[in-house]
Design goal:
Elements (H helix, E strand, L loop, with lengths): L2 H26 L13 H13 L12 H9 L1
Length: about 80
């Protein structure tokens, strides 16, 4: 497993857990579950979600295509 895959898994787990905390706070009606407002957790959620998105498999992240697929499209 490469470094990119490890970073992807770590950031994915962080994203899902912070999203779960935010949703749990919304469902239960608590404004602060961890000692600070739940909205502050968005400062962790957004960068980790962007890191997860940028480190996905099969290429560039934003378009998620490999070089060979892009070359086939150019030839057509």
């Amino acid at each position: 497993m490469g470094n990119k895959d490890k970073i992807n898994k770590i950031s994915g787990i962080i994203s899902l857990s912070t999203l779960a905390v935010i949703l749990l706070g919304y469902i239960t009606g608590n404004d602060s579950l961890l000692g600070f407002p739940n909205a502050v957790i968005l400062y962790v959620l957004m960068p980790s979600a962007l890191i997860w998105f940028g480190t996905r498999k099969n290429g560039c992240g934003s378009c998620n295509q490999t070089y060979s697929i892009q070359e086939q499209d150019k030839n057509n």
